[in-house]
Design a protein that fits this description.
- The chain is an alpha/beta fold and about 220 residues long.
- Helices cover about 35% and strands about 20% of the residues.
- It has one domain: Alpha-Beta Barrel (TIM Barrel).
- The chain contains 8 helices and 8 strands.
- Strand 7, helix 6 and strand 8 form a beta-alpha-beta unit.
- Helix 1 packs parallel to helix 8 and helix 3 runs parallel beside helix 4.
- The radius of gyration is 16 Å and the shape is globular.
Length: about 220
Amino acid sequence: MLVSPSVMSCDLGKLADELEKCERGGADSIHVDVMDGHFVPNFALGVESVRAIKRYTSLPLEIHLMVERPDIYWKPFMEAGGSRFLIHFESQADILGTIRKIREAGCEPGLAVNPETRFSTVSGMMHELDYLLIMTIHPGFSSQKFMDEVVPKIRESSAFVAANRLDTVIEIDGGVNLETGLVCAEAGAGALASASYVFRGDTVENIRKLKNLKQRIKPA
């Protein structure tokens, strides 16, 4: 299982230490939530924050753009050190055009979908994506409860990837802990973004537990 700790829940006053723990735990990337106060009712990390995070880790930075105009803002974040960009299907942008520009720039493009968005509305874009980020909470705030009703969408998208022999990674974001992470793994998810669970308690051990989740899946 790929694991991307979300730094929104870390102690930003001890950023270097927190990122070092992520590396020791075997994290595959760092998830950076960017919020503009318009697309979601909250503000979060900006370009200078990404630049600071990049100074303290060699891990890829996964930039989750919860903004109305990802087509405008992804490039400054790339220049600050981001290498994977997850843009929302529900945003006010030319989605396919932005995805293609991200790939042309040598970065990994991904599409994020809110809980209410049906997989069928984005399935035609799957061949363009490196990642599909399925939200299992409403975007904007951490520590929300995992929405079990989204699990069928994880199964549907994972089955689509397998049936069409795509390399697209199905990633889950929202309320991910050891219990819900196992549910996602059983549904076919290949990556987990986790905020509160990772940084509350033993960060190194929590990441390792998430990475080993697929070993806990019982044979059908």
